[in-house]
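A common beginner's mistake is to predict each chain separately and then try to dock the pieces by hand. The better habit, illustrated here, is to supply every component at once so that their relative placement is modeled jointly.
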Amino acid sequence: MSTIKDVATKAGVSRSTVSRVLNNHPYVDEKKRKAVQDAIKELGYTPNSSAQRLRGTETKTIAVLVSRIVNPFFSAVVDAMDEVATMHSYRMILCNTRGRADQELHFLELLRTKQVDGVILASVVNEWETIYPYLQYGPIVLCNEYPRGLHGAPVITIDQKKAMTTITKHLLHKGYHSIAYCNVYDVNHLPEGVRSPLAEDRYEGFVQAMEMEGKVVHSSWRFSGHSVDDGRNILRTILGLTNRPDAIITGSDEIAAGIIAEAKIKNVRIPEDLAVVGFDNQPTATLLEPQLTTIHQPTFEMGKQTMEMLLALLANQVEQFEPVTFLEAPIQIRHST
Amino acid sequence: MSTIKDVATKAGVSRSTVSRVLNNHPYVDEKKRKAVQDAIKELGYTPNSSAQRLRGTETKTIAVLVSRIVNPFFSAVVDAMDEVATMHSYRMILCNTRGRADQELHFLELLRTKQVDGVILASVVNEWETIYPYLQYGPIVLCNEYPRGLHGAPVITIDQKKAMTTITKHLLHKGYHSIAYCNVYDVNHLPEGVRSPLAEDRYEGFVQAMEMEGKVVHSSWRFSGHSVDDGRNILRTILGLTNRPDAIITGSDEIAAGIIAEAKIKNVRIPEDLAVVGFDNQPTATLLEPQLTTIHQPTFEMGKQTMEMLLALLANQVEQFEPVTFLEAPIQIRHST
DNA sequence: CTGAAAGCGCTAACAT
DNA sequence: ATGTTAGCGCTTTCAG
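With all components supplied together, the output reads:
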């Protein structure tokens, strides 16, 4: 494996000159520059980035933390981020936290130890006061999820509460009035005492819309989950209830898909017997039968803007940023409501 | 940010002793060890891994290359790999190549520059002779896809040809005889002259089964694609044909889902007017209506065994490996055929 | 415009 | 059992 020394020898110059060519410094004789470039090509030389890092330059690497890459929402967001990062010749390392606080911290260490230039948190489980200190080592941008008390770092997300209020009202105005609610949690139950502000905000939007219309929120109609199987189970539970809801709002299209799939087996008609609302507008939403009414999350924009914000921060191009950016999240009314 | 020197000073020992404690060497006085550990804790010290790498020790990091993380097949495989890696306290960096040969090579450089200990290729676009030289820098394990002429590195996959033969025969025996075929390609068309052995093997299995039963393979019934939209387009194309097939075998559930969704719009009955076969058995397969007949890919096992193989190679626990491991890929007959 | 030299933080002989 | 020393490959003053 060739080093900068080999290139220097081959090109008949010093290591410094090679370094200058590498880093596009001005004031390098054209002939020497050419000689160096030829040597680099011939040797198939690539700078050892561990050495570059050690020397204190940037790593051109971003860490992206998600709780669960198999969630189509996350893979879509990550895909958009990757596109932007690649375009700016940044590399992206994907960290699957599985919703574990220790894993999250573990990956944040990458920033402290200068293995990455910046971090994107697409899901958060630790308290902000735990994460905040890492800001001194480099920029952090949040995407989608956010902790309470967030400050010092921007977040790109949607207005969760508003989205839920809108969809709840839609249901109410369509004549449904016994509405069940399924909260979303990811992978693991959150650690004792820690709650997801995102989920809380959504629920608050739901409750507010219900109360505004004088409707009661039944505690026995409150569920939680994140997977298709969770959805299936929820439908079965509902069927066991003496007092059944006529609609259910869920925290993800996956849960909704499970409910719909199980409903077919149990001969429950959607939306006549039970209206179903999803969240995310995943690719699956239009493939289901009936097609799913859901809230569209602008995954591409979300990933793109988040990565762009981080890169801008890295380039010191940001004087002052909006603490919160809300992207539009229109409701998609289809045939499940 | 504190360094090993700070720790040494604080603990009143030399840097070597700190290093020894860090790396669990024997022969360290218990008192000093304790002093060092205390100093580490007080200073909140973490070794700078760029320095460690430069020095040539392991990185505890694996690079995983996939062409398209939004493909549920890949995210499932990656998820399984991540689980195994985490369990062995390895970190995983995800490289989304988008089917680009230069990106693939770029990420392979991580191995050469000692930024990762090993590489997993879940998709391959470069020729094996291009990739082969990287083996000298560390182990490479292939998963799912494979280049022609592969040697020196193990691959965990399924018997593509056999899977296609089996499913084609199923269709034939069920009475379908005008079978269209949709090849799978990922993200980009492959570079000129480069073909996907995986896709070729699948097609070969299809053709062989057809010919064995004396059926003709129509060239106008050959399509290719990878997305839901590709599937939609294919259905439209088929409807424009004067001589229509009565069944279609596709290279992924996503394509199949697109065909089914579009069929509904066009009032084409599945499977009466057109039988549809997918590939992968993605979570969506059972959510579609009709539920999709497909080939089950053991994503979890595939990811798990691939990562385990790589870790075993890294631990020098492997004398000699099976060049090819075929995992079972049973056909899932549901209602679309 | 270019080279010599110092040093980033760490580990592994080599001495003791 | 522990310290001293020599680099790993690179960038960046500092002189020329």
